[in-house]
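Dear colleagues,

As part of the handover before I leave the project, I'm documenting each prediction I ran so the next person doesn't have to rerun anything. This entry is a single chain, and its sequence is reproduced below.
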Amino acid sequence: MTALIRAATLDDAAALARIHHAAFAEPWSEDSLRGLLENPGAFALAGSHAAETDLQAFVLIQIAADESEILTIATAPTARRLGLARALILEAQRVAAQRQANVMYLEVAENNAAALALYRSCGFVLHGRRQAYYIDKDRMPADALMLRATLPIERVMGMTRSLD
């Protein structure tokens, strides 16, 4: 399937909140997302598959100086494992590099195997650990793995990427 990626706007805040609510036990509100979208150092990308009319996923990035961070990424349950999150991350890396970021960070629960595989395939490596940072659905603590990718990403899954 072809992923359609575009910049998210304030008009998308309700749709982003809906996606976040479907993806997380403690979702961010529409107002929280709207506030982040209004931040001049942040940007969001939204995506869907070509056959869909509604947004199905998004990534929210913050840039400070020459560093960027994925604040959140969410995919609607019906659109998971179809490559949409990967397309969003790769485009976010490209945009962050264009905006002079040299590195991208993110945090993920150590027990989130699917997310870890995705992030590693997008060039992220382990950078640190925060012990018992997350509480999982069974109320058990999970460490946060702090991941880092050097920008621009030139090789992902054996393919050379252009950042033109």
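The first helix runs from residue 13 to 23. The beta strands are 3-7, 42-49, 57-64, 67-75, 103-109, 125-135, 141-150, 155-156, 159-160.

All the best with the project,
I.
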